[in-house]
Amino acid sequence: DIVMTQSPDSLAVSLGERATINCKSSQSVLYSSNNKNYLAWYQQKPGQPPKLLIYWASTRESGVPDRFSGSGSGTDFTLTISSLQAEDVAVYYCQQYYSTPQGYTFGQGTKLEIK
Amino acid sequence: EVQLVESGGGLVQPGGSLRLSCAASGFTFSSYWMSWVRQAPGKGLEWVANIKQDGSEKYYVDSVKGRFTISRDNAKNSLYLQMNSLRAEDTAVYYCAREKITMVRGVIIPLWGQGTLVTVSS
Question: What is the DSSP letter of A105?
Answer without folding.
Answer: P
